[in-house]
Amino acid sequence: MDLTFPYEKKRSEFGKQCMFNDRGPELIDSCPSSLRVSVDFIRRNPVNTGVQNSKIQAEHEINTYRAEYSNALMNHVEGGWPKDVNIADEEQTKRYRRKVEKDESYAHIMQQLCKNMENCILQNNAINIYQQYYTDVEPTPLTEPCTARTVNVFQDQSSLKRPVTNMSWSPDGGSRVIVCHCNLVYQANIQSKHHHSYVWELENPNTPQMILNPPTQSVCIEYNQKDQNSLVSGQYNGQVAVWDVRRGNEPVDFSVMECSHRDPVNSILWINSKSGTEFFSGSTDGTLKWWDTRKMKDPLETLILDASKSEEQSISNALGCSILEYEHTIPTRFMVGTENGYVISCNRKGKAPNEKMMARYHTHYGPVLALQRNAAFVKNFLTVGDWTARIWSEDCKESAIMWTSYHKARLSDGAWSPTRYSVFYTARSDGILDVWDLLQDQHAATIGVKISDEPLTKLKTNEGGRLICVGNQIGTTYIIEFSDNLSYSNKNDKALLTAIFERETRREKILEARNREIRLKQRTARSSTQLAEEQVDTDDTSFEDPNVVAAEQEFFAIIERETKVEEEEEEEEEGQENLELLQGFDTEDEVKP
């Protein structure tokens, strides 16, 4: 409504009053028709004429006076004290209280207030304000729908379609993401123009912000979480490269070929160090190497993944590394996923190789494709391989505490949510991204999103929790955003998840103890049978196999039982014949007289 300003004026200031009266019409002028003028016009037939027969109405707006309100606050913790009374001075407040209590109207006012207060207290006692009505009706759960939407799509700029092998979010809040493409087909003839990796801005999906140009294909690449301009990458030929985006799109430094890996570098991660320049890499050649970006000629340390208990490690017995896991809150410990389906828990502080590789878990039938610790529960880690995803505890080495059912499509990657600790993601080869929430359902995925028709190869979660980066087989990268109930934790989520993990860990420990007891009984029974066999005098017809000996004993027992039955039957037949003969002799003696 527009603002109006009323203009007021006295009637006397309008001038002389107008006086009106009735009078007849007056002809002022007349224009007769002329036939000569009609030549210039055309007769219109038919003629449409509009007549308004309704009442004419007018709209007026009036702006009334507005009441202005103001909010005022008062602190009633210490009561309404006068301005001249200092609340902090105890003696001054006591004096004022005594002054008020000596007032004659004090008792009368208190009596009136007590009557009102007593009425309120009696009402509260008469009515149960905590009574639950409709207890027989089940409350409807207030569940927020789980949603997901595609924010951006990044296409591979190369004419040769290469799968996405790794991605990394920038540490400046996830405004950029670097995508690594590599064709891992053995002895594939890949030209140098198809070696590029791309740095994308989330707000610009049309052109990459920077194109990295390595001399060979990059299999994996990672941002330095302490420096957003520093990167390291693992190459297809086994070398590791150091990048500085401020110095162009070429690598700053390379590792020496003689000291590098012999197979493609499958995983590379920064480690927590004082200088912030150390990282380590793993390859399918069975070795782990620690590096420093300031000195790339030689690795700082090399570990051969030989899980045998022999003192000397051999590269021929080493297990190929498929994935690495490093938690910055545990700087000396890391985990290695191998191609044989084993996960090895390692400690870098160990002196001997056997001390460095502390524990081993048989997780999957094929290579371990994803391995990550939970952000809130570092003892529990997620593994993805073959057709399942499994959750393990470091205290249970024989079996996982939780696992998904076997999918029809092969799983390719998985990761925990960094902000909602009960949620993890799995990527499938049929193009579906599954989201699992352990607090909602442990038997089926909470939501499944069809990302593309091509198989998904890699996924990476953002530290904010809402965004996730997913890559497929033809090099397309998708940025997916999930709803708040899948991204952020509630107040009691951590306590509930703790109870779930402790319960499942306790159950697996009980089952492991029972299995150990059964194996011990079998071992003792086997050793006792072996001792009994050694005490028996061995003949030519004796056998060392306990199954053969048991079959022999059973055979002879059956023969003895059958011979006893036959002898009893023969004795019964002889007894019946003797009885019949005796009866025949008695009848002959009776006939003779």
TrEMBL record:
- Compositional bias per record (Acidic residues), positions renumbered to this chain: 534-543, 565-577
UniProt keyword Repressor present: no
* InterPro entries per record: Dynein_IC, WD40/YVTN_repeat-like_dom_sf, WD40_repeat_dom_sf, WD40_rpt
SUPFAM superfamilies recorded: WD40 repeat-like
The reply to whether Repeat figures as a keyword in the UniProt entry is yes
Looking up Pfam families in the UniProt record yields:
WD40 (PF00400)
Q: Which UniProt keywords apply?
A: Cell projection, Cilium, Cytoplasm, Cytoskeleton, Dynein, Microtubule, Motor protein, Repeat, WD repeat
Q: Where is this region: Disordered?
A: 523-547, 562-593
Q: Where is the signal peptide?
A: none
Query: Which SMART domains does the entry mention?
Result: WD40
Instruction: State where the protein is found.
Output: Cytoplasm, Cytoskeleton, Cilium axoneme
Annotated WD repeat ranges: 258-301, 404-446
* Family statement: Belongs to the dynein intermediate chain family.
What is the protein name given in its UniProt record?
A: Dynein intermediate chain 3, ciliary isoform X2
Q: What is the lineage of its organism?
A: Eukaryota, Metazoa, Ecdysozoa, Arthropoda, Hexapoda
Q: Which gene encodes it?
A: LOC108561492
